[in-house]
Amino acid sequence: MSRRICTVIAVTIALAAWGAGAALAAEEQLPSKSDPSCVKCHPAYEKTPNLFAGRLVDVAAKSKSLQLQIGKENEVIFFDDATVLKNATEYKTIDKNEAVRITYAKKDGKNYAKEVEVKKGLQVPKEKLMEADELAKLVAQGPEKGKYVLIDSRPKENYDQGHIPTAKAIPHFAFDNLKDKVLPQDKDILQIYYCAGYT
C-alpha cells in the first residue's frame, strides 16, 4: 500500500514539475525589442527572445524601474535584488543615453529584468587614434606602399553596403576565425581598425 502511495506522490510531483516547467518555458519566449542602432551591429538581437536593447532614459530608484528608449518608444522595465547588473556598480551611476541590453521575464504582469548589461564606451588612448586625413593619405598610397592593412570590423552586411577603399572585412565577432587568413604575418605592417566609431 505504501509503495502505491509513494508512486502516486512521485507521479504527482513529476506532473507538477512538468507543468511548472512548461509554464516557465512558455513565459521565457517573450518578444524582443531593439533599437535600430543596436541591431546594426547586433542583427541577432531582433530574433533573440526576452531581450530589450536601447538607450537609458531614466532610473527610478523608488519604483525600482528603468526607462529605456527603443526607437521612438519608451519601455519601462523593473528590477529587484535578483537582477544581475553588469558593467556598473549601481543603477544610479549609469549615464543617461548609455546603451543598455536587458534580458527580461514577466512577473506579476510586468517586465522584470533578469540581467542589465551596460555597454561601456570604448576607451582608446589618444596616441592610438588616427585622424581621417592621416588615413586618407595612406589609402591614397595603397596598402603596399603605405605598409598598412585596414580592417573594417563592422558586421559583413554593413561592409557590403559601403566601406573605406582598401579595407578588408573582419567583423568583430568573427575576429578569431578570420585573423590568420586576413592579417599580415609581418608585424611591422601597421594594422588599422575601424567600426562605426573610433579608428
Short description:
This protein is of the alpha/beta class and 199 residues long. It has helices spanning 2-28, 36-41, 132-141, 143-146, 156-161, 175-182; strands spanning 33-34, 51-60, 65-70, 73-78, 84-86, 99-107, 110-118, 148-152, 168-169, 190-194. The chain has six helices and ten strands.
Structural write-up:
- Helices cover 31% and strands 29% of the residues.
- By secondary structure, the chain is α/β, with parallel strands linked by helices.
- The chain has two domains: 89 residues, OB fold (Dihydrolipoamide Acetyltransferase, E2P); 69 residues, no CATH class.
- Strands 1, 2, 3, 4, 5, 6 and 7 form a seven-stranded mixed β-sheet that branches.
- Helix 2 links the parallel strand 1 and strand 2.
- It is elongated and about 65 Å long.
- The N terminus is likely disordered.
